[in-house]
Amino acid sequence: VESIESISIPVQYPSSESGVRYGAVLYIEKEGFGPLFAEAKIAERFDLAILSCKGQSVVAARKLVDEICRVDGGVPLFVVHDFDKYGFEIASSLTQVSDAASMADRVAYNFENEINVTDFGLRLDDVNKFNLASEHCKFDPRWSCPEGATDAEFDYLRSGRRVELNAFTAPQFIQWLEEKLTKHLPQRLLPDDAALEPAYRRAITLATINEQLKRIIDQAMKASADAKIPAELRCNVQAEMKKTGEQWDVALYRMIESQI
């Protein structure tokens, strides 16, 4: 019964539209970071939609990015990935079709728009700044420089080293990500009047209802405390169960509901 005291209608505006619910999209190539993002309130504090895939992005992710992160009329896309050859390739294929894929007839999705994308990395500067540990990997000498990588970054990768996002400690990762987001998102999201004005009216409605709910709950709790338990309660509930076919607690509620 105590949990009833905290009942209220959720106050967030019921929209999942870009520019209303979020002002940018954060894509991370790895799964499993959700709890860390939730604890640090990354989505809420930076007005983000967070998107992730395991490895290469799927067609649905590319189609979503193509629509909502386009250069004209979209929101920014920020990409987070490991510092290795595959990380750069994952970031590239999320927003464009590579020449190699076109030549090999392996195009999973054809983009209709130019994407407003910023590659957060990991990048070599981040590895050096946080003194992140590398691990050995095989690098085929026939591989060319990944799309978006600098010459210095390619030299590092060509030496047979890579750095995963997991090389960060949790506090380091959040610090690194917050620094990137703060730099690229200097202002908080505030939607245009087309969304703000109905949201204003809705807020008045919800605030009024929630205020009345507090009073009604107080009255209901007092009525509950003052109520006398009828001697025939068990028989009444059994009769209601037989009539409705419901389990005992639902039958009990229906019985009280009919009285009120």
Descriptive keywords:
single chain, 260 residues, alpha/beta, 4-stranded parallel sheet, two-stranded antiparallel ribbon, 11 helices, 6 strands, elongated
Structure description:
Helices cover 47% and strands 9% of the residues. By secondary structure, the protein is of the alpha/beta class. Strands 2-1-3-4 form a four-stranded parallel sheet. Helix 10 packs across helix 11 (248-259).
Quick take:
By secondary structure, this protein is an alpha/beta fold. It is 47% helix and 9% strand.
The overall pLDDT, averaged over residues, is 92
**Helical coverage, percent range:** 40-55%
Number of helical segments with 4 or more residues:
11
- Order of strands, main sheet, comes to 2-1-3-4
Q: Which value, in Å, is the CA radius of gyration?
A: 27 Å
Shape assignment = elongated
End-to-end span in angstroms? 18 Å
Note the main sheet.
4 strands, parallel
| Contiguous runs where pLDDT drops below 50 for at least 5 residues | none
Q: Helix/strand-derived class?
A: alpha/beta
| Content of β-strand | 5-15%
Q: How many strand elements?
A: 6
Order of helices and strands: EHHEHEHHEHEHEHHHH
Topology record:
Elements (H helix, E strand, L loop, with lengths): L23 E5 L5 H7 L1 H5 L1 E5 L6 H10 L8 E4 L4 H9 L5 H5 L13 E5 L2 H6 L5 E2 L14 H8 L2 E2 L7 H15 L8 H34 L6 H12 L3 H12 L1
Parallel strand pairs: 1-2, 1-3, 3-4
Antiparallel strand pairs: 5-6
Helix pairs in contact: 10-11
